[in-house]
Amino acid sequence: MNTAAQPPLDIVIFGGAGDLSWRKLLPALYMAHLHGRLATDCRIIGVGRNEWSREQYVAFIDQTSRAYVEAHAMQAEAWQGFLQRLDFVSLDATAPEGYAELAAHCQPGSIKVFYLATAPSLFSQIAAQLDQAGLIDAQCRVVLEKPLGHDLPSARAINEAVARHFREGQIYRIDHYLGKETVQNLMVLRFGNAIFEPLWRAPYIKSVQITAAETVGVGTRAGFYDHTGAMRDMVQNHLLQLLCIVAMEAPISLDPDDVRDEKLKVLRSLRKMSLSDIVRDTVRGQYTEGVVNGEAAKGYLQEADVPENSRTETFVAIRAQINNARWAGVPFFLRTGKRMQNRHSEIIIEFSEPPFSIFAEQAAASTPNRLIITLQPDESIQMQMMAKEPGSGMKMRPVNLNLDLQSVFTERRAEAYERLLIDVIKGRLTHFMRRDELEAAWKWADPIIEGWKQLADRPKSYPAGSWGPAASSALVARENAVWAEAQ
To answer: Per the domain annotation, does 203 fall within a domain?
Structure first.
């Protein structure tokens, strides 16, 4: 075991008083602190434009973040110990003044993790100022929050600007979906078990569905969201990353670049869409007034700060195709939306029917085999199969075989941000996007967004609390399929 003394650690969060910080990052770091995953000398420095003292910042986090820690984990002594780790530096991220003070707040010889929880337009300026202040060395890391650009040219510009100051091996482009336990378990399910890999391809798999549905609307994010839309906010990053893990070939090792090389091959194999493909294989939607969880919900155009004639999509469904031998002819259905009926994210692998069935008389009652990987609200993996009902005769009905991870692994499961933050601290890049991955994703997404502009169609309406426009059901029906909730 390596008993050499480790350098101290400073986690510097730009946007330290922002929504992401107090809702996600600091609660995640508290959980790591509570369970002994942060070294004693780890300090957390919030950075922002607020003219605050350390005491004012600590009071703000104590007031705001506490509500986002699970009640059973809120232990008074541990929470106070966590607050002792906090510090605050007031600075304008775009101006050199203040970076010298930030340097003074960092521990001598520390490993520095710079988490840029700010608008991407600030990334290049922050990187330049950190370099100018002598805060970048071979040990430091920088975490970039999405969205990384709004198209391929802007993504390239951000990547090039940050790369002037950080090596690629120091850059952690975070996607919290890749921190989910079940997503990471999918790698083991596929490549650690002999029973799945021979069937994980055409013609044995009929279709794949990837859904990320939310019940919330745009809330206070309308100013940002109206310039982004569901395609940029969810499909180009979260859903494509899930697609990559489902579709990738086995990497030669768990080395980060070996894994990311295989994901990149999937992104490069995605069939590019022509304008006619876009008309046929994509559906854009925008929610109208409705009822969600028993409460009245505004339509998107009635939300604060949304232009009255906005054509921004809050729902997207896409039939994607991967042009390689493994997935030839297998449709990948991607779907995401706000103000949907239920909040859930899942991956459904639907296997093909047997080529010949002795149960032909019961064909109407037969359900295809499905592997159901649920990411939220609860994580689970189920295999849906046909079984004989008790009694005389051979009547069938579908049953679920549960991979009962909850009872087998009784220890606590870290949430996605906690797991990924620990990966950053330990220098593990596997679950973070590489530059060429990000750019390949934009190369596929950009023509679709541009095609929608050329078509100039309004998004199709769907009432809040529904499962999206009817056209999304027609999209999968062409392949003799239905969305999961209708199965």
So the answer is: yes
Active site residue 238: yes
pLDDT over 50 (residue 387): yes
Which CATH number fits the domain that encloses residue 58? 3.40.50.720
Structural domain for 299, as ranges: 178-413+434-486
pLDDT tens profile 292-327: 999 999 999 999 999 999 999 999 999 999 999 999
Phi, psi for residue 248 in degrees, rounded to 5: -65, 155
Please give the sequence-ordered ranges of beta strands (E in DSSP) within 3-108, or none if there are none: 9-14, 42-48, 86-90
Give the position of tokens 């994901």.
263
Residue 472 burial (CB count, 10 A)? 24
Q: Is the pLDDT of residue 122 over 70?
A: yes
> Model's pTM, two decimal places?
0.91
Q: Which residues sit in the known binding site for substrate?
A: 176, 180, 214, 233, 338
**What residues form the annotated binding site for NADP(+)?**
49, 146
Q: Residue 2 is encoded by which pair of tokens?
A: 């390596």
Q: Which residues contact 480 (CB under 8 A, 6 or more apart)?
A: none
Predicted local confidence at residue 296, as pLDDT = 95
**Residue 386, beta-bridge partner list:** 398
Judgement on whether residues 208 and 137 belong to the same structural domain of the protein? no
- Indicate which residue of 33, 165, 238, 344 is catalytic: 238
* Domain annotation covers residue 425: no
Backbone angles phi, psi at 347, to 5 degrees: -120, 130
The per-residue pLDDT for 333 is: 98
CATH code of the domain in which 407 resides: 3.30.360.10
Q: Where are the alpha helices (DSSP H) in 22-98?
A: 26-34, 54-64, 76-84
d(CA 62, CA 80): 9
Annotated binding-site positions: 49, 146, 176, 180, 214, 233, 338
Final residue belonging to a domain, choices 122, 145, 168: 145
52-109 pLDDT, tens digit per residue, is 999 999 999 999 999 999 888 999 999 999 999 999 999 999 888 899 999 999 999 9
